[in-house]
Amino acid sequence: MPGRPVLAGILLAMAHATAVHADTQSEAIMAILAKADADYGEYLSGQCATCHHAQGKSNGIPSVLGLPDVYLVQTILEYKNARAERTNPTMVNIAKNLSDEEIGSLAKFLSTQKAE
Ligand code: HEC
Q1: Which of 58, 71, 79, 57 is closest to 111 using CA atoms?
Q2: Mean pLDDT, residues 86-100 taken together
């Protein structure tokens, strides 16, 4: 089977690329969180509360309170790039208008809040 080693090589290369990508992504998220300011996040979060209520899911809109900050940054970045099933037009529009500093600050603040 002359094709096998080539295929294995391609699969290995793909696995490697995915791992490198994941590392770069989590480093980027950590860098964003390192510059985050929870007070600024609290101020910014006013614009989220109109849709995201304190309680669980309502009208298809999940609560974003008390979620891990890393998850929040990653999710908002996914909307910003309309990536990984995160293509909801409302959230994509909102995320596109947020800078890294704003995303980090929102995540830091929201992660400290308690869902009711
Ligand atoms: C106009 C309504 C609206 C506003 C305002 C809004 N969102 Fe959303 N948000 C949604 C909807 C709808 C979803 C679910 C979209 C989907 O199905 O992917 C969502 C999903 C999310 C999610 C994913 C939650 C999860 O666990 O899947 C996060 C995080 C989020 N929003 C953060 C924010 C932040 C931060 C703000 C304020 C800057 C904000 N949203 C403002 C409507 C809104």
Answers
A1: 71
A2: 97
